[in-house]
# Entry
Amino acid sequence: MMEDIELRIEQLRKELHQHNHKYYVLDQPTVSDYEFDQLLKKLEILETQFPQYFDSNSPTQRVGGGITKTFQTKSHQYPMYSLDNTYSKEELEEWEKKIAKLLDSDAKWTYTCELKFDGASISLTYENGKFVQGVTRGDGQKGDDVSKNLKTIRTIPLQLQGDYPPFFEIRGEIMLPWSAFESINSAREKAGETLFKNPRNTASGSLKLQDSNIVAQRGLTCFLYALAGDNLGVDTQMEALEKARSWGFKVPDSAQHASSLKAVFDFIGYWDEERSNLPYEIDGIVIKVNEFEFQQQLGYTAKSPRWAIAYKFQAARVESQLNSISYQVGRTGAVTPVANLTPVLLSGTTVKRASLHNADQIEKLNLRLGDTVWIEKGGEIIPKIVGVNPDKRGDVSQKVNFIEHCPDCHAPLQRSDGEAQHYCANSMFCPTQIIGKIQHFISRKAMDVEGIGSETVVQLFESGLIKNLGDLYTLKANQLLVLDRMAKKSVENMLQGIEASKSQPYSKVLFGLGIRYVGETVAKTLTKSFPSIDQLKDATIEELTAVNEIGQRIAESVFDYLQQDTNWQLIQHLRDLGLSFEAEADDASANGPLTDKKFVVSGVFENFDRNEIKKYIETHGGKITSSVSKNTDFLVAGSGIGPAKKEKAVNYGISILTESELVSLVTGK
Ligand code: AMP
Ligand code: ZN
# Structure
């Protein structure tokens, strides 16, 4: 009977691995999503019932759930080199001459041309067809073990197929396609969070997230391009790619064999044009000597193989017309000019606008309305204007006159000596600034108010319900229920979220105030040196700059802010409402009794509502995760908790706490 079950589980896993490969790697599913989900559900149920057959490579492990607190450092068995690079065809010719000198005179080598994927490089280890671990490049000798996060990437096979060697490493790039990148950023924009800069940074940042649940949702993919190991049974790079593909890896079929540099140049020419149509970013072409025999003879320098080189593309550049300039006011009052352009396609996205930063920038470029401008997308998401095409300047071009009044509240703009930026000084009443400040205040890294988004803030402001940060805390259900699109449930969530935010530590409150130049790190530094807001207010500029990392600019900004009556009144008001302006809470979360412990909260509680109990745990250093896994330390169980969750916890040997046991754990009583 038990053997039957084990067989059944294995069978299901095998089927799911195959469907996964067909769907994600080959893009040719043979079952519907529904059928796939049903199979997965069956497996999940069996695995929960029979935890003795747990397998960390099971298809059920794809959804994430594991937390990695610190990533272990692992050595690469075969070092991960970087690549020499060049921007010119002449240098490629020189590279070929060097190869000719190093190899025997009768050597007949050829090349492979591959795309240079712009992501985060990774080395995966497989043993007997099973995924064992994945390590980042790090310094080339050793990197971080990010296996748990990698498992959530569906294009990385957990179980291989075909005639794979018993042990090998395979190298590739973790990529975030443009579409996934854009949807992450649009969600961040809605939540009032800062936008990610580019897919590459987002991909490598995602690999280092502690919570694999979030990684699973990022939409990462993995392209493979190199094998490392002994006795792999392949003699050329082209064969290696072919084999890896047959074992179930995603090996893009853009790679091409080239028997001469002429063919390499053709490949480069083709992709220099075509790359803008790719759904992901490449930053060049990698050319490799195809035959492993010759690769071996050529060997490595300290940094890179002599048998490979990267040809990098110039940053993508297109021309467009500057039609007008708009001005945006930020939450600190900074006014940023934005160029409105005739829409044009650039590296896979349509560009309509470009940042101009400030008045100096406009002057430096000598920009005039109607100009034909060059636009580049470097590593940044927002493209920039890098120059004006002088040959195309018509007679009708018009000088740009930087605005003198705030586009929103019409207050006169100010620009201090030595500052490049113009500011609207009307910080208390300028609508855009107020909305921006509140949006910043509620954002994840500040007060982390759940149940309220950036658009709701606009709605609340426009309906006259909130005019400053303090008004958030006096909102009443009956005021909210009459607004458009406000259901009872969302009003409840919102009020709960606002209430729960009162337990955010002082450093987050200070950051949330949105004082110019006080970012997250600066806020932490300040709260460490000045453990209460009163001490911070009493500090002189000299005392402030005496703190490591606090420069003159920050010191003056903090000092000026706290000396202004209106600001100080706001702080008093927030303090009366119960917000923390003292450093205690911070210490608790760093060295509290729950520090580093992982909690799952489930059910209904007597003295806390769900959000409160989560905040309570976090304030004392605990981490909340959404589902029970073997990494969970405690399950806090209220009434009405599902039996499946409880059973899972019992199976993993996780401690189950009642509400009062949790409180005892914190208070030690
Ligand atoms: P660089 O970081 O500029 O030194 O370039 C070397 C990196 O290019 C490698 O570490 C890989 O992460 C990456 N790369 C992207 N595509 C390829 C490819 N097809 N072959 C080899 N390396 C590649
Ligand atoms: Zn204004």
